[in-house]
Amino acid sequence: MKKIKKEINGKKAEAVVKACYDNDIKFIKLWFTDILGFLKSFSITKEELEKAFTEGMGFDGSSIQGFTRIDESDMIAIPDPDTLSTIPWRPTENGVVRMFADIYNPDRTPFEGDPRYILKRNLEYAKEKFGYDHFYVGPELEYFYFKNSSGTELLDKGGYFDLTPRDEAIDLRRDTVLALEQMGIKVEYCHHEVAPSQHEIDLRYTDALRMADNVMTYRLVVKEIAYQHDVYATFMPKPLIGQNGSGMHTHMSCFKGSKNAFFDPKGQYFLSKDAQQFVAGLLKYVPESTTILNQWVNSYKRLVTGYEAPVYLSWAQRNRSDLIRVPMYKPGKEHATRIELRSPDPSCNPYLTFAVLLRAGLKGMEEKLVVPEPVEENVYHMPEAERKRRKIGMLPGSLYEALQLTEKSQLVKETLGDHVFTEFVENKKVEWDNYRKFVTNYELEKYLPIL
Question: b or e along 224-261 (b: 16 or more beta carbons within 10 Å of the residue's beta carbon)?
Fold first, then answer.
């Protein structure tokens, strides 16, 4: 199959239809996510593509987590022509492409339960109220390779940036990067991470909506390439006891046109007033947003001291034990001024995560919050009395604690809308209740012999 030219992306639907006929494309996969961030898909043929653009493709939404009840299940999916991309591991004859779809109600109004719509709505809010044309994000998604999905047998015993001879993971990362680039996704770095068999491929920053699409694609590509090599890739936050978990450190900046609104050559730490208030907003509102950023019971096994994951509500320029890091300014690199939040994990729903982070930061600006002094000491080693004196709070320590904060959060409710807020919270309550009833191997090994 010929590679579809990049200039087709961004053109009108007619150009996409023509490209599919010109490039021997037979099948078009329409992708979207449920509220938990699981990728959903159905396929149409190129003969149906024009109808998909003009009328949409109907489907039953009642079986999609967080969508609709069975008595109001009709949904319409309309592909976004800007997201056209080949699927490189599919056959070249009668080839396959994918597009992300926006979900609508039968009356053609946007469906409020569509995570993609939620992010678009919040990006529009930032533009209308603050004049931000771009909310750029650059997430760093870590993950593990294991022999299979039945256990945690390692592929390697390497550490951070390690290069080992005949490393199978090097081939896995290489093939993954090549596949991502074939799909139009730019990659900056790839390397071994801290834990054994843990790896990272960093995507080049872009607008939040495109990046959320890229994150969904990235997670599928990593798993697909691993499958082709007869191994298993997982974005589970904490699969190994006594080792670092997998995070999704997320870099953020807001632009007005081509100007970075977070940079000020005369500002403290070269941060503008907007940026400082954005940091203050994150420090205040991330705890109640944590259920979105870290949505699984397992997520909180990662958010503990001693494994480079943040626990305390502090920020710094160099210290990687803080929740927020502001990379040091380099002369001539004004566009690179940004804020890095280190608590999200790679199993989140990126649409909801980016939306909540944007609104948390903007809330700091709306309330004109004052950012506290940075904490350059290692917060993990700081005496508790000193943390209390400096008013350094903590992230919630479990899904249950996070849910208690989220359920009362007006910010999260406004960001997600009533429908998704209610469905998401109820889903997480069920997960916590199921986990609470489960007897773990730890309990059996510790208590059964002595009680």
Answer: bbbeebebbbbbbbbbbeebbbbbbbbbbbbbeeeebb
